[in-house]
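User: Continuing from earlier, I have the next pair ready.

Assistant: Great, send them over.

User: Here they are, in order.

Assistant: Folding the first of the pair now:
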Amino acid sequence: MSRRRASIGVIGGGSWGTTLANLLAEKGSNEATLWVYEEALARDMAETRENKTYLPGIKLDAGLGITSSLKEAVESKEFIVMAVPSHVLRAVANRLIPFLSPASIVVTVSKGIENETLLTMTEVLGELLPKGQHSRLAVLSGPSFAREVSQKVPTAVTAAAASEDVAKQVQGLFATPYFRVYRSSDIKGVELGGALKNVIAIAAGICDGLSFGTNTRAALITRGLAEISRLGLKLGAKPLTFAGLAGMGDLVLTCTGDLSRNRTVGLKLGQGMKLKEILDGMKMVAEGVKTTRSAYFLARKCQVEMPITEQVYKVLYEDKDPLGAVKELMSRDLKEEWEVSFFQ
């Protein structure tokens, strides 16, 4: 797929930011620069052409620029890709705004909901960026483990933007023979699907840690999708989004894949470990831990029933026994599977 040469700044040197920056650089038609927060890591990556901390074993393209200077990564770039953890996106965005061109398209690939404000990542950026740039915001999400994408495993994701032109530009920017990009106008649905599936993945891991079977996992994924959709529809998302790549696709991947950090957190909780011990032993961020708090309070604010999310919140933040949480879910009042109001 040919397109004109584009200048891109990718902000965040974790596994996903590194993978996407490398993908963009490898296309050859792009000038891609990756911003890495840790100066020592940036220097080592530039010298060795490998991110030994977050993406070991993957050789980085010789044309990929690597820097710890936000100005260098952002100034005069046509596209800015925000790949930092969701809980630091606001702080990093505030730092880069002085260098941001008004014409830049800003794409967030961070999956989360801000704890303090209960805003999605594009909503956070919408608070910070000039109003004229709001139509140039986009989100990229879907079932995509960084390591598999870095190994060129066939993958499909969704790019969403309010403007179809912006969505098409982002679609063309990222598309490769192994990375297929669909487009959507439902920013809200794509973001909520990407964020909330991490909460359900923790629940799936808990069930696996308790040695429940595939029956349990199938039920959990299905009912998890139901409550993600309930909240999404309440907030104005489109129903079909949750049946797509950013909804069901990402949910299935994160609840079943061994590379899922959120499932791993749940797995260890189900095996009896405490949350602090688990997080202390992880190099990379499991977004679902913080998102669970946001999702729990957002559901309460919107008066939307999310029983799985509620139990995950109690396990994470109230030290509830995981087996007790499952028993409580299974003993809830019996009801219709689908309520008419769900679709209205």
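And the other member of the pair:
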Amino acid sequence: MLKRMCFALLAGASFFAAGVDQAAAIDPAERPQPGVIYARQPQPAPMRTAYSGRSNLGGGFIEFLFGGGPVQDGAYQQQPAYQRDPAYQQEQGYQQESIYQQQPAYYDQRRTLLPSFGQPQEQQDEALDPRQRPLDPKFQKQLVEYHGKESPGTIVIDTPNKFLYLVQENGRAVRYGVGVGRPGFTWAGVKTISAKKEWPDWTPPPEMLARRPDLPRHMVGGPENPLGARAMYLGSSLYRIHGSNEPWTIGTNVSSGCIRMRNEDVIDLYGRVGVGTKVVVI
């Protein structure tokens, strides 16, 4: 019993001596001062470390390239192998959409009517649809000088040059562009206007029906009528000065002997002349 008490006294003395040594080792400035209350310093939170099952392979981008998984919550997820298997996708009814869609071919049949660059203007005009060919400005209605011997009020038709002149006073004439007879149907002479009609009916003569049996036997007047908006009949002949529903034929040899005008021009001429007007065809 006495031995145990001695051992305990020796152990207590050693612990006291160690405490005194530690207290002596503290800087006097850091020792607690009597009567001073010190605030308790908060302890820092323990740092948590994340564990990754595998290397991020350069920040995740290379992992994404080789892993093939989608991005979810900022991380690249590996797609299960069985989902990447084409057989699995086919079994589940998946259809892979093409990234690039087939674009329709750019082809306009009308482009075949257009001429290539570098062709003369005449060839370009011929390559166009006749209905799209613009009217030559010289065939538009205009007031020009006229030095012929015909008196004012006379109509003069210049067949070779496709012009119709309405002679005015003081050496002037109103000139219109016209369409004239095809080769073999041109004629020359002097006629008078024997009748005038607005939006006339058309009855092809037997001679024309013999050449064109496909033509209608009769057609009422209107925008679709070949005689156009107005007609002025020349004597007892089958010839007329009339309008046309094909204005692109002005300036050409096109008719069976009649003189064609644009509808707006024939309406203008119709209002300027009357029955009995002299018509000279050259």
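Worth noting for the second one:
The first helix runs from residue 2 to 25. The CA atoms of residues 153 and 272 lie 9 Å apart.
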